[in-house]
Amino acid sequence: MLKLRNSFFFLLLLCFFFISIGDASVHEYNGVKFVTKGNAFVVHGGSEGIYSSLDDPQNLTSIIGESYIRFEKVTFRRPKESANASSKPIQAVLFEVEDRETIGGSAYGGQRAVCCTADLAKLGVCVEGEVIYRPSTITPNWPKVFGVAFNGDDEVATLRYQSIKVAKTGMYNLYFIHCDVNLKDLTVEGKTVWKNPTGYLPGRMAPLMNFCMFMSLAFVIIGIFWFSQYARFWREVLPLQNCITLVITLGMLEMAFWYFDYAEFNEGGIRPVGITLWAVTFGTIKRTISRNIILMVSMGYGVVRPTLGGLTSKVIMLGGTFFLASEVLELVENVGAVSDFSGKARLFLVLPVAILDAFFILWIFTSLSATLSKLQARRMMVKLDIYRKFINALAVAVIVSVGWTCYELYFKSNDVYNVQWQNAWIIPAFWQVLSFSMLCVICVLWAPSQNSTRYAYSDDANEEFNKDDTNLTLIQPSPTPSKEFRPVQGSNGASNGGDLEEDKTE
Predict the structure, then answer these.
(1) 257: closest CA among 212, 218, 220, 203?
(2) Which N-terminal stretch is annotated as signal sequence (predicted)?
């Protein structure tokens, strides 16, 4: 088991230290309306981490590709009632996150504004009605600010086609901005293409494609181990082990679909909705079943209880609620997402999932405490030993989870502008690794073997707990009688006989 854990730790390090060249995507605008931000009207055109074009003295860039942001048929449309009014220019503002302070300004230390005001215009630092910006002291000729104005009574104005080469690795932000109150109903159409040396996948997502490839390999390895044991001892397989088989299969499918999702996205620049939907759904089903398995094992599923009893509906309801909450969260977070910018809607969707996870943890440890106490009281030492190993692994996983959650909160609170975008992929990757590690522990503890039935519930063992709300029962009686506890006539004989039989089993 120690060797297996070392192998997974090495795989984790290999994934974390894997270096990848970034990719980017295609952003489409279909009648997006401008919204008011301070004294400006704004449309967020995209935010992505982009790697610079490769330095290639041997002219390899022509083969691998350049990094650029290209504007294709970006048009602005105003309503007919506004067509006769003169308008100020609509500008595209493209800047790297470290240059964010170069956008906007204030007069005499007053409130910061994006659009040039009359006071600032008097100082000669900008043109009234246009975006305020200053040249970057970090990157020459940045930020990029250019625009277009409506001619006469035209209803449509189009930005000129152009491709801006990215020479510096960073998080780039694009905004379409205008300062004209007469254009409140203005909309934008068209698309921008964000590309890096190797494709269209956004820079922060790029390492995840390689991570999913390694995780797929890891699931294949654990699958080979599990299915080989399953085939050898299929006559001894318990229902609990069938559930574990399902989780491993779902894990393989999830990682495979995520890899294909990122690969297709990288190739064409458009997120494949169908593949993303399957990846999200398989992952959500896997997480739901995994939590239910851990909960039922904690309650004695297949070990000390033959049925779920009256709590069946509660377990199903908790699992179903968690599935719905997680599915909605993952769909909003991933389906159709082409930007490295996480929307505010996710914050409202994370809370229900976090509450349900906390409820799972509370119920699991409450049930484990009762199960351990009763196993110890009945001197079922083989089962007690495996449950102690399980609870130790589970406690470590919970402690690590709490620690990583605190780090994630710290990371996000100190990286509001996504400056650390190159390291952001580690956060979701860690949760996948932690979940996989817990699955490996369960596979080792409950691997199919010729002695699997000694962990199963048996009517002959008279293993019946007191009925209460903190315990579940779930599995059918094993056809093979358990020799773990055998009642013997007599006061002293009962205890000694049980101990002797337990030693033989161990």
Answers:
(1) 212
(2) 1-24
**Distance set, CA 132 to CA 142, 250, 383 (Å):** 13, 52, 71
Strands 40-50 and 35-37: antiparallel
Query: To which residue do tokens 């494949």 refer?
Result: 272
With 60 as the cut, is the pLDDT of residue 497 above it?
no
Backbone region of residue 259 per phi and psi (left: phi > 0; alpha: psi in -120 to 50; beta: other values):
alpha
Q: How many residues does the chain have?
A: 506
* Candidate ranges 306-310, 339-343, 349-353; pick with highest mean pLDDT: 349-353
Identify the DSSP state of 131. Answer: B
Please state, for a pLDDT cut of 90, what percent of the chain lies above it.
Answer: 43
379: which residues sit within 8 A by CB, 6+ positions away? 485, 498, 499, 502
Give the pairing of strands 90-96 and 144-148: antiparallel
Contact 160, 73 (CB under 8 A): no
pTM of the complete model: 0.78
Is the Cβ–Cβ distance between 360 and 322 less than 8 Å?
yes
> SS3 of 147, please?
strand
CA distances from 237 to 105, 227, 448, 466 (A): 70, 11, 6, 27
Highest-pLDDT range among 83-97, 161-175, 449-463: 161-175
Upper half-sphere CA count for residue 436 (Cβ side, 13 Å):
31
Q: Which residue has the tokens 């277009």?
A: 148
CA 461, distance to chain mean position in Å, is 45
What is the mean predicted confidence (pLDDT) over 71-76?
A: 94
- Please identify which residue in the block is written with the tokens 């409506």: 150
Angle between helices 273-298 and 312-334 (to 10 degrees): 150
**Omega within 30 of 0 (cis) for the link into 57:** no
- Alpha-carbon distance of 163 to 142, in angstroms, equals 14
In this model, does residue 494 exceed pLDDT 60?
A: no
Locate tokens 């050898």: which residue?
232
**Domains in the chain, CATH or no CATH each:** 23-195 (2.60.120), 204-469 (1.20.1070)
Average pLDDT, the chain: 80
